[in-house]
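Quick one from the shared queue. A colleague (R.T.) flagged L-histidine N(Alpha)-methyltransferase as missing a structural entry in our internal table.

Convert sequence to structure tokens.
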Amino acid sequence: MNQLVRFHDQQPQLSDDSLCRELLSGLCSDPKCCSPKFFYDRRGSELFDQICRQPEYYPTRTEEAILRSAAADIAEAVGPEATLIELGSGASRKIRLLLEALRPSRYIGIDISRDFLLDSTRRLAADYPWLDVHATCADFSRCMAWPVGVANEHPVAFFPGSSIGNFTPEEAEAFLGRLHPLLPAGGGLLIGVDLIKDPSVLEAAYNDAAGVTAAFNLNLLERLRHEFGADLEPQRFSHRAFYNGMESRIEMHLVSQVEQEIHVAGESVHFAAGETLHTENSYKYSVEGFRELAGLAGFAPRALWTDPERLFSLHYLEREG
Ligand code: AVJ
């Protein structure tokens, strides 16, 4: 196959010092925490892909149904000749649902998982020969910059999957605030946001019967071992996910089954029995609540699509001013 994708590498070495320091500072804080971006090594990205196919995990199929049924309306709102920039493009699967209706001139996938990104964007370029496909390996949670000169024409950021839910509301506002200056006035943001709903539906989605979410959570420990040299034993931890109604968020934790001491990069970390490592938050919003947050960052609501059960929302926002 030809080299159909233009690749822009903005990612410093994955196990570089600053990532390791970030990891350690979370492990050494009280309570212990770890950024969910550490989930996404190659195996983690594959497991996340499998999560999206679990019957209990409604967000993916619901958002895909919205994208499919609203594609023409989305094309109308976005307009022609867009440069679509997907933040955390993963398998680049959702964008396919929009390409025929939208006919953008360019697609830029940005993801932290380099090999996965390259495979996915190469497949996309092969399947859509008329599309100018770019791939940027970067950690967009830290810094965000479009590849120079590539995103000039009508940039529209695409941030599906309720990935925004990984940020606290304060972080989400700051993130949108950093996205704002990268877009010209009238530039767009098409963003998927999971909605507040019955906690039993939410909790089932993060505790699938096949145990894929548990494997995804526990894979973080494998990564700590292989990439960061931790001496821990994964079977001494278990998966826990629950809805925290006060904070409107799903929390995922790794629960230490025993009292133990682990060593990572020269530091020793003590776990009491039952103590947890908080690995992820997944915030849920009301439509109004999310619009308010986006408004604080300078984005105006332009269009909204939801499914009939109101499980999930897709917002089209425009950069103001
Ligand atoms: C990718 C952050 C949207 O929060 O639902 C899925 C990640 N974690 N199952 C989510 C996830 C466990 C997912 N996001």
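The pocket of N,N,N-trimethyl-histidine is lined by residues 51, 59, 161-163, 165-166, 206, 213, 280, 282 (CB under 6 Å).
DSSP finds nine helices and 14 strands in the chain.
Added to the table.
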